């Protein structure tokens, strides 16, 4: 049992009582630099995490730590701007709190986005990649105490989203996302090895959320925004400002894509 489970039901009741959320069907977790998606939510209401009883607060550059609620293409949707990274010292149980809240509120679909480094030489900064597989190098990410096994697959969803992207004339890649705990970036040797085993993008989030959402029976799709080429792929050093630049390039496409996914899947 996740220690946050009771707190989450408190958060959900509060949000419903205060009429901040209205039976949302879809939830979106926004990666670094992708917070502007919230501009595309109609009649948006927002509340800081700190003002939601039972909900934890966040602290990272580029994250607001707010929950947004409103309609996206006519579909009641919630969006989390700000998340809980394991590398910041939060326990895994906390990194998945947004997923628990989305499930508690009745969401059927979870879109999880992230800023990621590209291990794949063919990708470019600004590329959007649909996550069609995950690697987490054997780390136990499921927070269930039960001895349950389950498999993360979402091939059919990825196929559908590929078609949605094509219909919306938005170029997307498809590939495997590797979850690293961070906070250090990878070494050149690691990235070389990761390429050999089939990794396309690498980042420090998303896998725990996707796995938990799948375990809870939600439909999921993960989307990486390539904000930098991974260590050794490009010669420059990595820093947080690159995230903003890459997000500027694709934030509109990202928002259009997510809106189209929500509309097609839940509308
Ligand atoms: N490595 C790990 N996490 C990241 C990267 C990276 O290159 N870029 C953005 N998040």
Short synopsis of the structure:
The chain has helices spanning 5-17, 92-95, 97-104, 155-167, 188-196, 207-215, 241-266; strands at residues 26-30, 42-48, 66-72, 75-81, 109-118, 128-135, 173-179, 201-203, 219-229. It has 267 residues and is α/β, with parallel strands linked by helices. The two termini are 33 Å apart.
Summarize the structure in words.
With 267 residues, the chain is α/β, with parallel strands linked by helices. The protein has one domain (5-266): Nucleoside phosphorylase domain (Rossmann fold), CATH 3.40.50.1580. Helices cover 31% and strands 24% of the residues. The protein contains 7 helices and 9 strands. The chain has helices spanning 5-17, 92-95, 97-104, 155-167, 188-196, 207-215, 241-266, and strands spanning 26-30, 42-48, 66-72, 75-81, 109-118, 128-135, 173-179, 201-203, 219-229. The protein has a 5-stranded mixed beta barrel with strand order 5-8-7-6-9. Helix 1 (5-17) packs across helix 3 and helix 3 (97-104) runs parallel beside helix 6. Bound molecules: hypoxanthine. Residues 115-117, 180, 185-186, 202-204, 227-228, 230, 238 line the site of hypoxanthine (HPA).
């Amino acid at each position: 049992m996740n220690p946050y489970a009771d707190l989450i039901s408190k958060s959900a009741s509060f949000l419903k009582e205060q009429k901040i959320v209205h039976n949302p069907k879809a939830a979106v977790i926004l990666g670094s630099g992708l917070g502007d998606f919230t501009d595309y939510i109609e009649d948006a209401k927002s509340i800081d995490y700190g003002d939601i009883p039972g909900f934890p607060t966040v602290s990272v550059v580029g994250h607001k730590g707010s929950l947004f609620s409103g309609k996206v293409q006519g579909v009641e949707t919630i969006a989390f701007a700000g998340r809980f990274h394991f590398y910041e010292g939060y326990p895994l149980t906390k990194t998945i709190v947004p997923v628990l809240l989305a499930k508690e509120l009745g969401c059927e679909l979870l879109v999880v986005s992230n800023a990621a480094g590209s291990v794949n030489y063919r990708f470019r900064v600004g590329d959007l990649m649909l996550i069609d597989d995950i690697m987490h190098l054997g780390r136990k990410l499921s927070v269930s105490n039960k001895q349950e096994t389950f498999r993360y697959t979402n091939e059919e969803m990825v196929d559908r989203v590929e078609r949605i992207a094509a219909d919306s004339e938005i170029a997307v890649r498809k590939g495997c996302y590797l979850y690293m705990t961070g906070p250090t970036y990878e070494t050149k040797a690691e990235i070389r090895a990761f390429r050999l085993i089939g990794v396309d993008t690498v980042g420090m989030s998303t896998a725990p959320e996707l796995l938990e959402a799948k375990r809870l029976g939600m439909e999921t799709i993960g989307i990486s925004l390539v904000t930098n080429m991974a260590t050794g792929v490009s010669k420059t050093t990595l820093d947080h400002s690159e995230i903003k630049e890459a997000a500027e390039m694709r934030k509109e496409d990202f928002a259009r894509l997510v809106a189209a996914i929500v509309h097609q899947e839940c509308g």
